[in-house]
Amino acid sequence: MRKKIVIGNWKMNKTVSESIRMVTELKNLLSGKQDAEIVVVPPFVSLHPCEIALHESSIMLGAQNVSAFDHGAYTGEVSAAMLLDVQCEYVLVGHSERREIFDESNQTLNQKLKQVLEYEMRPVLCIGESALTRKATKTFDFLQTQLQECLRGFVEDDLDALVIAYEPIWAIGTGDTAEPGQIQEVHQFIRDYLEKQYSKAMANMTPILYGGSVNQGNADVIMKQKDVDGVLVGGASLDAEHFVSIVQHAQ
Ligand code: PEP
């Protein structure tokens, strides 16, 4: 059975001292044994302080982004090796804000996936359609192209650590969550795609998360969908009690 995964993406929120306070609070609230994997994703500068604050906790650390390059003269970039060194276990790749605001293409994301996998962290490949694409009934074609181009050149053995997050752009930060039926339909489509391209084993093994205005009120019904293996939470992950209550729905 696939273990549920709950990821809190803080985006560009919380200073270092606020981040330390937040993970300390989460560590206290989630001190018992957890059935789900819990991952917090603070801004880069807070990763090392959070690593220290989370010592002896089962809460894991993730990064919001990674360089497509290994090392060298790339001012402002943060490499996969640097993330691994501060005990990051997960890395978001291709969040829609990175794609839209920072123009990250599927080809760039393919390079980022290579970096994350080479350094043996778990990439969380984010895919999702815009409202316009959905309205034009092009959602499945669009998602298939994102999967094909981002995963180009990988064979099944390369992708043991892959996590996919379905995040419809129209649901991110809008309060406009996708309907449980719409979510299940897309997750099933992604799982079928993995089976067609790779194998049934790979389709069964790969966690597929949902993201888009998840909160303590809707997390339960979303995570009860057959092909939903957890959630990627933005806004509601900034409040410790809200995030913990979402985690409780994953147990
Ligand atoms: C996200 O940032 O990935 C996200 C889903 O945000 P929100 O939960 O705020 O919609």
How would you describe the overall organization of this protein?
With 251 residues, the protein is an alpha/beta fold. It has a single domain, classed as TIM Barrel. 41% of the residues lie in helices and 15% in strands. It has eleven helices and eight strands. The chain has helices at 16-29, 47-53, 80-85, 96-101, 106-118, 131-135, 139-150, 180-197, 200-205, 219-223, 240-249; strands at residues 5-9, 37-41, 60-63, 88-93, 122-127, 163-166, 208-211, 230-233. The protein has an eight-stranded parallel barrel with strand order 1-2-3-4-5-6-7-8, surrounded by five helices. The longest helix is centred in the C-terminal third of the chain and has 18 residues, at 180-197. The relative contact order is 0.15. The model has no long low-confidence stretch (mean pLDDT 97). It binds phosphoenolpyruvate (PEP). Phosphoenolpyruvate binds at residues 9, 11, 95, 167, 172-173, 211-214, 232-236.
CATH topology, anyone?
TIM Barrel
Number of structurally distinct domains: 1
- Overall average pLDDT: 97
- Gyration radius from CA atoms, angstroms: 17 Å
Distance between the termini: 13 Å
Which secondary structure elements does this structure contain, and how are they paired or packed?
Elements: E1 5-9, H1 16-29, E2 37-41, H2 47-53, E3 60-63, H3 80-85, E4 88-93, H4 96-101, H5 106-118, E5 122-127, H6 131-135, H7 139-150, E6 163-166, H8 180-197, H9 200-205, E7 208-211, H10 219-223, E8 230-233, H11 240-249
Parallel strand pairs: 1-2, 1-8, 2-3, 3-4, 4-5, 5-6, 6-7, 7-8
